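Weekly puzzle thread! Below is a chain. First person to post its structure in token form gets bragging rights.
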Amino acid sequence: MIQHLETDGVPTLLAPTGGSMRAGLTFRVGTADETLARHGITHLLEHLVLAPLGSADYHFNGATGPVFTTFHMQGSAADIATFLTSVCANLTELPTARLEVEKDILRTEWSSRGGSAIDDIPLWRHGARDHGLSSYPEWGLSGLTAEELRQWAARWFTRENAVLWIAGDRVPEGLRLDLPTGTRQPVPAASSALPTTPAYFVHGSRAVVLDAVVRRRAAATVFAEVLERELFRALRQDAGLSYTINTGYEPRGDGHAHLRALADALAEKQDAVVGGFIDVLAKLRVGRIEQSDLDAAVAKRVDMYATAEFDAARLPAYAFNLLTGEPNHTIDEHLAELKAVTVTDLHEVAQEAHASALLMVPDGTRADWAGFTAAPTSSESAVSGTTYHARDDDGRLLVGTEGVSHVGAGGTLTVRYADCAAMLAWPDGARQLIGHDAIVLHIEPTLFDTHPAAMNVIDSGVPVDRQITMPPRDPENIPQPRALREAREYLARPKRAGWEILLMVLSGLATLVVGGFTLLLTIGMFISPTAEEDVAVLWGAVVIGWLLTVILALPIVLLRRRGRR
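Winning reply:
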């Protein structure tokens, strides 16, 4: 039911729909094609293209993913023709007048977006490159120029690197896809920051997350559904440990897919959730898979294929496959593949998932007891170079011609210049080097006995195109050595008023005189014999003396408490 056409040299997919027409223009480019030092260029270009269309009355949007960028809208055929024609015109002649405005909008978007439990998964698996960049802020925005954006558009946003998809009965009249000529771009190879798998890392989120890389096939999609059913049954229904449990299956465009699963946990139940989660994975890995779960998962997916809108709904995925060179099947072929999945196939997927697994566990928990290796948080070796000592601890900074290392109580952190994904540079001299393996080395010159020559070695070692200039920091936010910090805190303490000091001195003297006299009188009562008729009078004087001593000391106590507040 999906027709293959061509519009102005762009492959076009057309599928019928019972609702209003919708369409999208998808390009094979995304964040995985960027570098950390220029991260954000595709997203910024998407915003610039759509900015002049902001006053339109129809619904449209853009999306930038790891390996694709899409401009899509829903509306009448005439509106779609106008929208997509304008998108192509803006891609050819970028409206750069709003460049700085759109940069600010993207920074606001990043700062206001809600964090997700899986946000850091990509950087732990891939590092600070290709598929791992989606975990990082768009630091490259500040240095991007209009010319760089034009070059990026000319390379990636071409007719050979695009697919048009339309849910409707025809290609809208008047639609023009005036794009430059180029080449179909391959999906970037996925890097790895994990020396060995299965691995795990500790995260502040109260959730357990599994990320696995499996071959893209029907059995893997069915396994994701079976895994969700098993986790739901074990962690929610039986043990009552989790509320949110879900799984996902996301093709990567290179014949593989990310299979993910999540289960949340209360702080006091985190150990139990980690244990229950791993038990479910182990159960499936040894082949204890129920045929009834397989049948239910297949039936659920078969029902999806039976809907009248299914062809229209799968157009974006179909375009993705066309762009990445993945096979596209008919509905009958999909159904046949689904119905052929066996328990043995699911067992194979479970073993494949375990072999590539990366597990995220909450703070205070571990997974090494289950055979998972802790993902590296430090480097194996340090560079040779000049040593600079920390001012507050036993840490050492080694600055060499090949890279920089920090050796301290937490281990060794090394970033070599050749493997530096980006270096953030602040005007006050601070530097933050991020390696391709996601190791972060932050250098505060105020905390080490460095000198300008050392920082010059670092700046000259990192390639210029990987250096990112950061905005000035508030002086109050620049870390200082402990001695200087304590001196500043002491000087910043509020000074007492003159009357307070005078009152405390007088109060102290009076307390000393009255208290001393009362103490001597008290001692004398026990040492010297006293006439019986004088005892009551003397003890009364002692009681009055001690009460008066307490009253005279009160100003000192109250004024000291006031000073502490």
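Puzzle host: Confirmed. Bonus trivia for everyone else. The chain has 16 helices and 20 strands.
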